[in-house]
Structures are given as structure tokens and as C-alpha cells.
Amino acid sequence: MDLPLGPPQARRLFALLLIQAGQLVSSDRIIDELWGAAPPASAKVQVQGLISGLRRNLRSPLGDQPILTRGAAYLLDVRPEETDTGLFTRLAAEGRELLMRQCHHEAAQRLREALALWRGPVLAGVPAAAEVIARWEDQRLSVLEDRIEAELGLGEHDRLVPELRDNLATAPFRERTCGQLMIALARAGRAAEALDVYGKWRQGLVDELGIEPSPAIRALHGEILRDSPGVTACHHPAYRESVVPSQLPPGIPDFVGRDALVADLLAELTPDEERETPRVLLLTGAGGIGKSSLAIRLAHQVAEAYPDGTLFASLRGTTNEPRPPEAVLAGFLRAFGVPADAVPADVDESACLFRSLVHGRRVLLVLDDAAGEAQLRPLLPAGGGCAVLVTSRFALDGLEIGRPVPVDVLPSADAAALLARLTESGEFDEDSVAAQQVLEYCGGLPLALRIVGSRIGDRSGWRLADVAVELSVERRRLDWLRTGDLAVRSSLSLGYRQLAPDRQRLFRRLGLLPTADFPAWAAALADGGEPDRVDGALEDLRHRHMIQPISRDSGTPRYRVHELLRAFAVEEVGAEPERERAEAVERVLGGWLWLAEKAAARLPGSVLRPEPGTAARTALDETPVAEPLSWFQSELHSLEAAVSQAAAAGLGELAWEIAVVAASYFDHSGLYAEWSRCHRRALAAARTSGCARGEAALLRGIGQIHLYWDDYPEATRTLTESYRISERIGDPAGRARALTGLCVVARSTGRPGESRETAKRALAIFTEIGDVLGMAHLHTSYAVASADLDLLDEAEAELDEAWRLCVELDDPHRMALVLRRQGQLHLRRRDPRVAMSCLRRALDLLESLSDELCAAQVRLDIGRTYTTLGQRQAAAKVLTGASSRFTGAGNRSSAAACARLLGTLTGA
């Protein structure tokens, strides 16, 4: 920026203030500087005028008051780093500090930045004191010599010779410059030229100044004459003949899989001349996942692209004593030929020397099993020609450079291929049940697969079927997965032993959860803490790759623990007192029951759903179930496992309550197989625990499934048994619900009169106990049975009453079901257009509720109506969609009805 400073005297005054920026300059000194020994009588007044003018000219670019008055002195109020001189002084000091620590590359960079601030002679165009200009020029030359010393330390002697000759010609009496030129020539193998430079320089010194060179440069002259160590290239410790280390461990001959990842990382490791920073790949993952094998595989494949050396170091990050970075650096420096006594003890000095050594070279480093960012930082080179492969069980999120590469378990196809390669017996059959079981138990963990392959391949008689049996017992799984010095348990325990005590407790309590994937709140309940206070601990486990984040459904973090890590957690938690474990399990299952109830309450009401039982609930934040269908979908596997865990633990009340609440989603989504499996597990537990009300409720659910499957004898048996239990324990609501199912059985088997009488009995009970939902449902059932008997007016009256109750309940789902029955009734009365109107309204309601199965039933009726109206193409389209949904759900009778109608449309 050019500043309008005014006349020469003002420019000279500003130069004086600028050189002393941030310091007071007295009025007397200013007068001496401007006028010398004969100042005018008005000198002080003139100084004040010059200051005023400078303030006017500087106010806009430099602020409101850049020049301050302090008594009889003035001060330019700027920070040192805001001026070239201040910034130059700081950069020069930093560069010299780095040079003293032998950090030649960093020192040279810092000193170059300092010199780049010089854009010509100091104070060019400003009449200033000659001694000021001389002092700053001397500082510039000193920094220039420091920069050259740093670059000589980097071995750039050949490049520096021409520059040093020019510098010596410009400042012929600077002894340090002469000495640097002599050293550069000597290291370049040009000792004779170095001696000639000295001779001519000495002669000029004697002729011009009448003095002899100093003892230091005379000693340098003598060392060059004697070819002393440390002066010529062949003896200089940092630049002796190049050593190319090759430290990679042997490759992995049976490496299998990860083809896409390997291709991606190989492309990343391709050298690029334009890069200014090294390539750093951070391969992170759990123990036994195959990180080291992957890193070594990659290193061997790109080694030729790094001809200046391949370095390997085990950092022992999962041991109690990780290797200190200075010890690793010492090994690297010795590998490059640096004598042991020349290796600095200080980690920063070692790091600087290492970066200087590899500067401008292509070197590949493999740093295995890193303990964390602090251990890694000193080991990273600075040049863009280098590449680094890091493996660690830690996420290394805080490292400033590097591409994170999470390494997961092997995909199923790769795991199968590895196991096949390892067994080498021809016994492996990917399609066999035993092979699939072994692969499932190993969970894609390469270490576990290698152990299985070793034990099968050692000709000890083990077969995959035997292995599958051994691994099926979770508590014995880790005992079996060991051979030689390979053991899954010892690998997993390394990470566990490094955890703080509270993190260890949280991790082992994951073994109390019903599944390997879990929401954060479940881990918190297992650990006995508040759900919102466990995030930091879970994040720590994630950082160490002991758990993996898998989703954040409904705003709730969800994680997965590998099956073998889970087996390890089960072992560890087994040592805790039984009572504490039991209490933790009940808390967790009570949490699932609480949330399932809240989610089910947001789904359409069901007449089958009983009143809550006596199992203890664990109250939680209801936010996760704001979208109940999404919540049930994400928790479906966990809910099934929770029922199984409750049953196995003898918690019959929890087992049946969770199962019955989950039935709301099973029914809504047509998941009949899951519904049946879950209810039958809970039924055995309820019977064992003597939970009669739960037994009756579960039997009603199983009866409903048999109705959907058109298995009417089995439906009759289970519903009748449910009715008898409810009668025995004095549960009228239970009797009415069982009768509701039996009403459907009678209607579906061609007994409308019996169906009507059964509905009437159930309706009377629901009316007596004031169950409005049950009343609405049974009025509808009564209407359907009446219509089957051609009592259409009575059926219409019953549907009108059902509609009134639905409006009272404000239940759109029940309204849709009543509208469907009204449409059927209008179709019986040969009024298809009114029928279609009712059915369309019902379909809109059901689609808004995402009830696909009930919507399919309405589409079946719409297909019938289109057929009546003669719209065959529209009928065929809607019936095809409904048929597909019925077939998927296993509803044979409805699927058959669709097929019959489609047959009539096509003339089949």
C-alpha cells in the first residue's frame, strides 16, 4: 500500500516511528534525526505539525489514532506482527531456533518466509539514517546465511554454489558466506575450488583491510586440506552414501477379498509430484479384523513406487507400554545409516532430523498398532513424496492429516472365499449348513477364520460340522478359537484391558443385552446409569472400535458389537454377582416393554390387545417412538430377542407382555411368521411361570394367526383354550376377545348363524364392561353375519351403530373397516357406485395409516365392484396388486379369492 505521507521530512519522521513501532520516540531524538546539530528555533513546532499531517494521512488506512502522544514523545500504535520488521524478526528467531535443533527442513522454510518480506532496499525512497539502513541490511544477510546453513544441512550443496558465489561478490568481506561457499564446494567433491576460494578471499582481506582471517575459517581451510570427517560429502553424517532400508514383513500369501477397497487405496498411494504433504492412510478397526494384513498387502504392492526405502514399526498401541516415538525414530534414523551416537535423544530433534533425511525422497512407512495421535505425530514425514500406512484400534479422529479408512469385517462372500482357501481340504461347501453356521459364528473376523482354517487344515480330523457344533455354544466359543499363538480371546482382551474401570463395566454389560445391536438407552440401563449420561462412554468404545455406530433411528444412536466381542463381554459379565445381572436384565427388558407400549398406542387399536400385566416397566423418553412403524421396524429383532431372553431368564410376565405388545406391529404389517414365533416362545415361558392371563392372551394371538392362515381347526382349538382359561381366572374381557375370534371362525366356515350368536355373546360382555372399541368391532361382526343371512336392514343398523362408536372413539382405522363393510353391503344391494364410494374412502384412510394388509382386503372388494360395473381392465389391475400382497403374507383364502376373480375376467 502506498501512503501519501507528505514532504521528505514527514517521510523521514514516519520511517523513524515505524522502525521503533510500539516504542516511544522522544521529541529531542526526532529533532536530532531531522536537523542534526543545528535545529531551527521552531523545531518542536515543526515536529508537531509533521505529526498532525501524518495523523491526517494515516487515519483512514491505519485506524483512528495510529500515532499517539505520550508527554514529550510519540508512539506508532501498531503490533509488531503488523509490520514487516516485526514479522521478519519473529520468523527469523523461529528459524534460528529450528536450526539449533537441527530441524533443517522446517528452519529453511521459516527463514525463506522471513526473507520473502524484503522487496528491495530497506526504507527505499525514505531519507533515513545510514546506520539504520546498514543495521537492517546486516540482519538480512545474517538470516540469508542462516537459510543457507539450513539448506546445507539438507544436502543441497550443489544447488547453493552459484548463489553463494553471488552473495560473496555482493558482500566480499562476510566471513560466514565465504565459509559456506567453501563447505558447499567441498561437499560437492570440489575441494580444490574450495581452497582457491579461500586463497582469493584471504588475499582480498589482507589487501583491502590489512587483517588476517579468523581462526575459525583458517581451521575450516585446514580441515578441507586434510579431507577431515564432517567436511567433505563422503564423511558428513547426514549425507553419506545413501542407504535404502527395506523393513516390510513378509506378505500374506492367502490374502483374500476387499478387492474394491484395495483398488481404491492403491490409487491413493500412487505417487504425485505435485503433492506438498504425504499420503497418510489410517486403517482403523477392531482387533482381528485384518488391518495389519491389509496394510502389509498394500505396502508390498506399491513398494516399487517408493525406491528410497520402506520402513516398518510395530507401535504396540494395545500393550501396556506403547513404544515411545523417540525410540521408533531412532530405529528409522539408524536404518538410514545415521550412526547411533548421532541420533538425538530429544523427540523433537529426532523428528526434525528424520524429516530432513526423507525430504525430497520417496519413502513408504507402515506404522502398525498405533496407540493414538500423540504417538503418531512425530513419526510423520513432511514431504509429498512419502506415504504412510497406519493401523490402529483407535479412530484417530484428532490427527490433523490423513484419510480415515475404517476396516470392517469381511463381506460374506470374501469370508467364505478365505475359509475355503484356508481349509484346502476340499471339504468346504459354501452352500452347506455347517459352512454357513461357521461363517456366522466367526462374523467375518479374519482372525477367527484363520484359526478355523488352521484347525481343520492340520489334519487333526476336525470337520466343518464339528466346528459348527463347538462354536454354537457361546460360552465355549472363545475357548475353541485358538491355535498356536493365535487366539481370538487374547486379541479381544487387549482392547478391554486398556479401558478405564467404568468403561470396562459398560462394555461387559453389553453381554446382558438380548442382541448384538442395541440402542444407546439399552446400554445405559444395563450399566445402571441414566440414558443421557452414557454417550461419552459409548463414544469412547466407538473410538476404540469395540462397538460400531449403525444408525440414529428416531434420533436415538444405535450401535453394534461384533458377535465375538459380545461373546467376550458375556464371559466377563459372568463374573459379576448374579443378582446385579438379573436386575440389569429386568431394567433393559422393562425399557423395551415401556417403549413398545408407547409405540403400540400410536398404532390402530386392536380388540385383541389385553390390558397391561404386572411386569415392571422402565420409564424412558418417548421421543424415539414418535414414528411407531419406524421404531418397531428398527427394534423388531431386538423385541423378538427380548422375548427369548425373558423366557430363558424365567421372566414369564415380561415375556408375554412384550410379545403381546409387539403383536400390534406384527398384525399391522402382516408379519405372521414372526408373530407366531414370538408368541410361542412367550407361551412356554408364561405356562412355566404360571401367568394364566398371559397364556390366554398369547393363545388368542396364535388363534388369530391361524385365522389369517385359514387353519380353522387350530384356530378353534387355541381360541377355545384361551376362552376356558379366561373363564377360569374370571377375566370377562379375555372371554369376549376369544369369542371375537371364534365368531370369525364360524363365519369363515359357512356357519353365519353361529357366528351371529357368538358375536352377540361377545358384544354383551364388551357392553357390560364398557369396552367401546370391542363394542364397535362386535357390532361390525354382527352386521357381517347378519348380511350373510340376508338380514340386510339389520346389518345396516348394526354398521350405523358401529360407525357412531368409531366417531366417538375418533378411530380412523376402525372407521375404514366399517366403511369397507358398508361397501360390501351396498354391493349386496346391487348398488355398486355407492359401494365404490365407501370402499374408496376406506382405502384412502388405510393408506394414510400405512396398513397395507387391510388396504389389500379393500382392493379385493374394489376389484369385485369394478367387475360388477363391467370395468374389467381396472378390476384386473387392482386384483393383481392385492393378490401379490396376500401371497406375501400367507393369506391363502384371500389370495384364492383374487385368483378366482381374475380367472373370471380372463375367461379361464
From TrEMBL:
InterPro entries tied to this protein: AfsR-DnrI-RedD_regulator, BTAD, OmpR/PhoB-type_DNA-bd, P-loop_NTPase, Sig_transdc_resp-reg_C-effctor, TPR-like_helical_dom_sf, WH-like_DNA-bd_sf
The protein's name in its UniProt record: OmpR/PhoB-type domain-containing protein
Keyword Protein transport listed: no
UniProt domain OmpR/PhoB-type: residue ranges: 1-78
SUPFAM superfamilies for this protein: C-terminal effector domain of the bipartite response regulators, P-loop containing nucleoside triphosphate hydrolases, TPR-like
Secretion signal, residue range per the UniProt entry: none
Gene3D superfamilies in the cross-refs: P-loop containing nucleotide triphosphate hydrolases, Tetratricopeptide repeat domain, Winged helix-like DNA-binding domain superfamily/Winged helix DNA-binding domain
PANTHER family reported for this sequence: TRANSCRIPTIONAL REGULATOR REDD, TRANSCRIPTIONAL REGULATOR REDD-RELATED
Molecular-function GO term, any one: DNA binding
Keywords: DNA-binding, Transcription, Transcription regulation
SMART domains, A to Z: BTAD (SM01043), Trans_reg_C (SM00862)
DNA-binding region (UniProt annotation): 1-78
Membership in a protein family: Belongs to the AfsR/DnrI/RedD regulatory family.
GO biological process, one term: regulation of DNA-templated transcription
